[in-house]
Task: structure prediction
Amino acid sequence: MHPHRLRASTLALLVAVALCGCGTPGSNNGVVTAPSGPVTTGFDTSQKVTLTMWDDETSPGPSRAEDQLIAEFEHRYPNVTVHRVVKSFDDYMATIKLAASSTNPPDVFQGNEGYAVDQSLIKAGLIMPLNGQAAAYGWETRFGKPSTLDALRWSADGSTWGGGTLWGVAQKAEVLGVYYDKRVMAQLGIRPPRTFAQFEHSLAAAGAAGVPPIMVGGLDRYPLGHVFMVLQALFERPQAISDWVFGHPGASFDTAATRKAAAVFAHWGAAGYFESGFNGVSQQSAAARFARGEGLYSITGPWENETFAGPLGDKLGFFPMPGARGTPAATTGSLSLPFHISAHTAHPAVAAAFLDYLTGRHAAQLIISHGDLPAADPGEAALQGASSLAAIARTWDEKSRHGLLVPYLDWSTATMGDTMFGGLQQLAAGQITPAQFTAAVQKDWESAHS
Result:
């Protein structure tokens, strides 16, 4: 879970109000139906077209990648001009829904998975359903298994999440795993673990040597969520996790498997496997210390890769958490913020072609060259090598193709970020039991989905 996603969940009440009563000229204030007839991949190249695109890619590398892709698309289609509007995430989320409901909405723009943003866009009739475009361009198989796109699917009326109509397509991906410092590991005389038991042995070895086993910023709370989500994915069935996140009736967090994950997490806290005073350490500080070689592991996602790889270079490694018997295990991962097409764009065919270009294999290769993780398969050449980014890309490709990705737990309700991450602070500090933690989380879920 990128920190952006946590902030999105805490903005739930604000963004729910943003669309209340905001009618759009020509809007049906509800379900948007797909255009009649088959969708094709062509469009009229004789007419001048200007597309407006909104995104939140403010980091230098990803922003340059977007600009290059836009320039290439304009070169390929000289009749098209793309006007890009870039905002920081907080500014973006505070304004995108008002912009989407205005009389002059952007043609293509990012949303955010879950109840706070995408559901509201669908219910207000502000974005186009994309099943036809997905079939025409092959989006259903571009990102691994079709189920990888489930977080971008809602029922036609926006009431049910995780299946039905496709409403967006993503350019990048996120997958949680274990970064490690190869120098520290060599000094400890251990190798990258192949089973979960070996992983726990390496934690004990680091702790005994006075090396912080897992660097984590507990003060910001959401990094503890990363650690717990990876653990839960080891013990709980992937389908059970997905059903719970997507709000399916009868789903539960308060299960034996999830309590086992919570017990392991609590044990790690009691055993000192998180650095001393972790609940008072920010993620920025924890990440900086790991990048300086002060710890063995950091359990997080690709957004921290450049933070670590800059100082550590080829001494930085990455692997997915191994399963009990060394077999591949599920982990938390998702597509990045989805791109949507405005229901009121005058150029739906051009917008679809543009989204296809932003999310194809060439774009994936360009994104990797700028230090980020693409959602689409970039090809074997881009996945070769010993870099941490290549390992992350291989992990995403393998997990997505084998159905071993589960969604972020805090997507499940508008208040789950506060409930779950605050509970994990208490659990790691020994202030509550695993059973108390899982029961409190399930109570929040039931309140939201009753």
